[in-house]
Amino acid sequence: MSDISETNVPVKLSDAAIRRRMIAEFWFYFRQNRGAVAGLVVFILLVLIAIFAPLLAPHSPTAQYRDLLLVPPIWQEGGREGYILGTDAVGRDILSRLIFGAQYSLFIGIVVVSVALIGGTIIGLIAGFFGGWIDNFIMRVMDIILAFPSLLLALVLVAVLGPGLTNAMIAIAIVYQPHFARLTRAAVMSEQKREYVTAARVSGAGNLRLMFRTILPNCLAPLIVQATLSFSSAVLDSAALGFLGMGARPPAPEWGTMLAEAREFISSAWWVVTFPGLAILISVLAINLMGDGLRDALDPKLKRS
Amino acid sequence: MVRFILTKLLYLIPTFLGITIIAFGLVRILPGDPVLLMAGERGVSPERHAQLTAMLGYDKPLVMQYFSFLGRLFQGDFGNSLSTNKPVLNEFLTLFPATVELGLCAIFLAVIIGVPVGVLAAIKRGSWFDQISMTSALVGFSMPIFWWGLLLIIFFSGYLGWTPVSGRISYMFYFPNVTGFMLIDSLLSDQEGAFKSAVLHLILPAIVLSTIPLAVIARQTRSAMLEVMGEDYVRTARAKGMPRRRVIGVHALRNAMIPVITTIGLQIGVLMAGAILTETIFSWPGIGKWMVDAISSRDYPVVQSGLLLIAILVMVVNLLVDLTYGLINPRIRVK
Amino acid sequence: MKKLLIFASALAMSTAVAEAKTFVYCSEASPEGFDPAPYTAGSTFDAGAHPVYNRLTEFVKGTTEVEPSLAESWDISEDGKEYTFHLRQGVKWHSNDSFTPTRDFNADDVIFSFERQANADHPWHQYIPGLTYEYYSSMSMSELIEKIEKVDDYTVKFTLTEPMAPFLANIAMPFVSIVSKEYADSLEESGNMAALNNAPIGTGPFQFVNYQQDAVIRYKKNPDYWGTAPLIDDLVFAITPDAAVRLQKLKAGECHLMSYPAPADLEAIKADPNLQLDEQAGLNVGYLAYNTTVEPFDNPKVRKALNMAINKEAIIGAVFQGAAEPAKNPLPPTMWSYNDAIEDDPYDPEAAKKMLEDEGVTDLKMQIWAMPVQRPYMPNARRTAELMQEDLSKVGVDVEIVSYEWGEYLSKSMESGREGAVILGWTGDNGDPDNFLSVLLSCASADEGGANRAFWCNEEFSGLLSEATRTTDQEERTKLYEEAQVVFKEEAPWFTIAHSTTYVPMAKGVTGFVISPLGDYVFDTVDIAE
After folding, report:
1. β-bridge pairing C257-258 and C22-27
2. Residue A249 pLDDT exceeds 50
3. Per-residue DSSP letter, A210
4. Secondary structure class of B50 (helix, strand, coil)
5. What is the C-alpha separation between C142 and C134, in angstroms, rounded?
6. What interhelical angle do A34-51 and A94-130 show, nearest 10?
7. Residue ranges of C 400-419 with Cβ closer than 8 A to chain A
8. How many CB atoms lie within 10 A of CB C415?
């Protein structure tokens, strides 16, 4: 309780100071969650790996060593030095492909979340702000999209748009945006009744300004939480699409696609099957851990308990 | 209450129409031509192509095709599959029990494990049990289940040889299809070992499919319990000296179950998505695999009617969840 | 008491199950239906045409030679246009719960089986709305057969519009399986016409029992089979689309034999003491077809140079895991008239690079199309394309790999003016060279609706082919086809990739299975050692 009364101290602070204080407070709660910190560390590592992939990877992700097909990992009998996690069916170094694959996963997550977030937020703002038949219509459309299982709808959308990474990302973003729209709408509707909105309206703020400058910043917390959730789901779903043959094109080292190509080696070369899946699991787990921490730190209701 | 149900039902009508438009529209803008797919590497002459297209009714204007699709829907005609020529509804109804059986078992597993784990974790908040179970739940929640399924097959079927690899029951057993649920039919058949075989076939797919719902339910139960236990009436009950077990069992658990039930209901959509992957990996003859196959073979009638049937199903389940929610939580009815 | 009885009968059943010899085949796909005429998939023929039905002629097991079946013998007229078939007598039809045959197989059944496909007004042409007879129409049977006459109950005369050397092989194909007219009549009466497709009645070695969609098909031995009776009592198809899962089931003893193992698993299968592995060269070819109508691929020297830049052995190793033979001709080596004298282009990137420079081709950018599906002639087109991409980059050619959904792939690759080279292949239908060369490389098939994806129209080559179909003399035809293959090699419209080997893994103790060059899985001669 004490911390809340503390922030409520009616001292006039500059905007920057408020922001700094909010961040400090956020970090204070976030830091208490050990899992979240671990997730953050892994995630930062992942970002670094993606950025410095060309420096870190021992080999090119597409270079084929024709006389080194399906070499097992280094610790296993038959392993070769320089190919720590072994090679795949055309002699490419798996570790290097996984390292470059991090770029794809992060890229997919960022693109999907941005598209879904921006699209969904705008739609939700419009629905919540204007209400009436516009709201009704938009929400029915969102209901319809949500009535289809996400992966099934994404699958059909990719089939419509044609297989490939870009189209897979678009499809997943379309499937995800209703969640953002609903959240935003709910937040807008509850915020709209607050005094500060009425005050802004009275002082002559336009609709756009009201929507984006006044109301939106105050609904950010649930959106951020939803965004992290969507980030990890996007990585999972794009891998699933890749696994079903609807994802990235060869020779892109996207993890789901690697897994799909490795499927025929399930009983002969465990390493080509195991590592890409493990990479997916670890990165999704890290993001989810981080998301948990974010939610705990941002959600004032849970803070109290 | 009746009014509440009626409003809910009324809302379904435009949603339903929207679903038909999307199911129909998406399928019609699918690139690829079912006629060419039927011909394969061989190719088909332009005349023959036009003839076949006309026969399938794909030469008419889209709007007309849509209305005839809608008209036939109301007569209960969902069209015929292009690859097998059988009525789509028949195929759906034959395969549906397999998916339901798998889904129910997965949900069952998720609930009987997830709820107790969540409650226990909430009660022993911060203990090693809480930490381990919640970490595992998060791992489960982050699991790429198609990979998880492959690993389980490698280990349990390949390495240990404990479970069969795919299918619903051993070919050794053959009995009439009464309910479509292998577990029940095998019991009814009175054949020795049939039930055991059905269970062994079901177990791995059910585990894989239950992974994510289990994680979600465990986490949701824990946080709902924590929230309820912090509420005033629970604190009051504790303060009044009511035994801890009774407080948790009677007050906290019952109230915590409200959001949990919603969560379980919402897992139906997740289950359908999971069924697509699980059925593909385990060759489980259900509607998930059926849809994937239909999409890749451009079986228009199957894709559009399948989408429609699945969406209706999800809609109905969501409605039921809403109603249950309304029943156990009277506050919502006022809204 | 009643309960006891049920228990007793269940007991009787389970002991019967234990004693009967049941053979389980792990198949790769569900059948489209059980009537072989309207469908095209191999899995459909394996489930319908081969166990349940017979044809007038059939292929000798393991070969593409034709032998008598329901037709005991035949006479061909001088001009090669009239075929008179003498039918086998005393052939019994199967029976099921709703149908008991009152007569044996006869000429009416033969005529019915052809007419229902040929004649659009026939009451059985559309017995399920939307049926099409793709094989009958694409093999031009309607144009070829002028009329079919019943001479007497056991003699049928076919009159053709022109002499056609491969006719006897054509009618050995699954789509002209002989179905029972009497059964059809009884179904028409009861109004359940779809049963012809769901509950087939045939003359074949096995009777259809039951099909659980996408899961299991059951057959039992036909006790009255006219040929050699099967050695097993029950035949079960366990439908298992995933190759790795099929292998797991085979290893676990859940099935006795499986189709299409993943090439990667072959080593492990060979090493497994509980399994045996049969192999045979397949009747197929995988190829990369250039578009010979666009620059610079209209220049045979450029095509030759590209062919020399691609390492064929590497593809065979990495994609087929060695389970294939490098292809130098469009015909597979098991086909008669295969020209073994032809030398393949050597793999020589240096020379290739120089050849390209000599032709003034530098900084070439091209597309390679990789099909999205696995086919018997190509286990992984994506990987093949990746290998080609790497090889061609070494001679300065920049390759972009593209792929489309399968149906779209087939249609777009046949659009004239198409950019890029296409990976595709072919599996023989009836063991005649014409079924490869004319279908895939003639001028006629370079048009819309054909399958000549190189759009290669060479007068000399096409002339040799049409001369060969007009001749019935096999030696003469062999010479013509051999010559055609020489033209093909000089002109190089394709990079011929490989002829994949068919591998059939089975449990130790399984005997009598013969691999079909046409890719059929037939079980009338298999047996399991106790």
Report:
1. parallel
2. yes
3. I
4. helix
5. 12
6. 120
7. 401-405, 408
8. 11
Inter-chain touch B273–A151, beta carbons under 8 Å: yes
- How confident is the model over A225-234, as pLDDT tens digits? 889 889 999 9
Give residue A304's pLDDT band: very low, low, confident or very high (50, 70, 90).
Answer: very low
Chain C residue numbers with beta carbons less than 8 Å from the beta carbon of B31 are 404-405, 408
ipTM of the complex: 0.82
C367 touches chain A (CB under 8 A): no
| C54 compared with B249, residue with greater pLDDT | C54
Helix (H) or strand (E) holding C158: strand C155-160
Reported residue count of chain A is: 305
Chain C interface includes A264 (CB < 8 A) = yes
Q: Are strands C494-507 and C275-281 parallel, antiparallel or unpaired?
A: antiparallel
Distances (CA, A) of C128 to A71, A195, B195, C243: 53, 68, 37, 33
Confidence band of C14 (pLDDT split at 50, 70, 90): very low
Identify residue B50 by its one-letter amino acid code. A
| Residue A251, preceding peptide bond in cis (omega within 30° of 0) | yes
B281: nearest CA in chain C?
C242
Cβ atoms C480, C471 nearer than 8 A: yes
CA neighbours closer than 13 Å in the CB half-sphere of residue B71: 6
For chain A, which chains pass the contact test of at least 3 CB pairs under 8 Å? B, C
Q: Do B166 and C249 touch (CB under 8 A)?
A: yes
pLDDT tens, position by position, A91-132:
889 999 999 999 999 999 999 999 999 999 999 988 988 888
- Best CA proximity match to B230, nearest among A6, A2, A302, A295: A302
Q: Look at strands C421-427 and C365-369 and give their pairing.
A: parallel
pLDDT digits (tens, 9 = 90+) for C371-390: 877 788 998 898 899 999 99
Count of beta carbons in the 10 Å neighbourhood of residue A305: 11
Q: A253: which residues sit within 8 A by CB, 6+ positions away?
A: A61, A62, A96, A97, A98, A100, A101, A104
Amino acid of residue B297: S
CA distance C493 to A299: 67
Which has the minimum average pLDDT: B165-179, C330-344, C503-517?
Answer: B165-179
Is there a cis peptide before residue B243, judged by omega within 30 degrees of 0? Answer: no
> Does residue C105 sit in helix, strand or coil?
coil
Instruction: Give A-chain residues touching C383 at CB under 8 angstroms.
Output: 89-90, 250, 261
Give tens-digit pLDDT for B63-72: 888 888 888 8
Could you tell me whether strands C57-59 and C66-68 are parallel, antiparallel, or unpaired per DSSP bridges?
antiparallel
Q: For residue A205, what pLDDT band results from cuts at 50, 70 and 90?
A: confident
Question: b/e for B50-80, b at 16 or more Cβ within 10 A?
Answer: ebbeeebeeeeeeeeebeebeeeeeeeebbb
Q: For residue C263, which residues of chain A lie inside 8 Å, CB to CB?
A: 264
B271 Cβ contact partners less than 8 Å away, ≥ 6 residues apart: B103, B106, B107, B209, B213
Tokens 């009645």 found at: C201
End-to-end Cα spacing for chain B: 12
CA nearest C477: which of C450, C439, C438? Answer: C438
Q: Which amino acid is at A39?
A: G
- Mean pLDDT of the region C414-434: 87
Please give the structure tokens belonging to residue B269. Answer: 């959509």
Could you tell me if A277 and B144 are in contact, meaning their C-beta atoms sit under 8 angstroms apart?
A: yes
Question: Is A249 part of the contact surface with chain C (CB cutoff 8 Å)?
Answer: yes
Q: Percent of chain A scored above 90 by pLDDT?
A: 27
pLDDT surpassing 80 at residue C186: yes
Q: Please answer yes or no on whether B37 and C410 come within 8 Å at the CB atom.
A: yes
Backbone torsions φ then ψ of B2, nearest 5 degrees: -60, -40
Give the integer Cα–Cα distance in Å for A126 and A134.
8
Joined tokens for residue C270: 């060979």
Amino acid in position C247: L
